[in-house]
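Pilot study result, target chain (243 residues):
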Amino acid sequence: MATPTALQKAEKADVKPDTLKRYFEAGAHYGLARSRRHPSTMDYIYGLKDGIEIIDLEKTKKLLDDAKDFARSLGEEGGQILWATSKNEANRIIYNVAESIDHPYVTGRWIGGTLTNFDQIRSQVEKLEELETKKAAGELEKYTKKEQVLFDRQIDKLKEKFGGIRSLTDLPDAIFLVDTKAEDNALREARNEDVPVIGLCNVDCNIDQVDYPIVANDSSQETIRIFTQAIRDGYADGADVTL
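Predicted structure:
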C-alpha cells in the first residue's frame, strides 16, 4: 500500500489523515493472502503487497463510523452490548472495555446456547450467585472440609464459564465480535435470535452476515484496541457515561 496516496485520498474526503495514519501504524491495513479472501470483502481491498491483500482504510473508517453511530444509539436507549472474543490477543481488551461500561462479556470459548438457550444459561448464572451468597453467609460451613472444597471448585468453574455475563438478564441488544469467522458459533446464535452484530472482520470473513462490519486486521492487538474502544466510546457518548 502506498501510504502517501492513501493519506492524500483522505485529505480530499471527509477523513482526517491523522486518523488513517493511526490505523496504518497499528497495522489495521493488513489483510490476508488473496486465496483466503471472502468475496464479500472484495470492495474493501486497496491492493496487494508481498502476497498480502491491503485493506482500504478510508472505507474502514466509514464502516467504523456507521458502527459507532449504532453503538451511540444503543447508549441513548440504554441498550446493552455483549462483548465477545476467544482470541488471546483480544481477551484483556474486551474485558477492560466491557467492565468500563458495566457490560457483559465472554473471553474464551463461546458456550453453546448463550443466546439460543438463554434461559438455561441464565439458570447457571443464578446457581453461581446462589452458591456465592450461601458461602458469604457461612451456610456452607456446616459441610465437611472435603464438601466445602467441592463447592469452591463448583463456584470457580461456574465463575469461569458464566462470570462475565452476570449482568445479562435478557438477550443483549447487540453483540460485538472480534473475528466473526473465528466466532462463527456466536455469530450464528446472534443471527438466529435477531441480535444485531458489530464485528471486527478481516478479509476472510463473510461480512454479509454482519450488521455492522468493520473490515480491518483482526489479529493485531493495537488494531483490536483502537476499534473496540471506538465502539465503546460511541456507546458511552450516547449513554452520557464518563469514562
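One observation from the pilot: The helical segments are 3-12, 17-26, 57-77, 88-100, 118-136, 145-162, 184-192, 221-239. A full batch analysis is planned for the follow-on phase.
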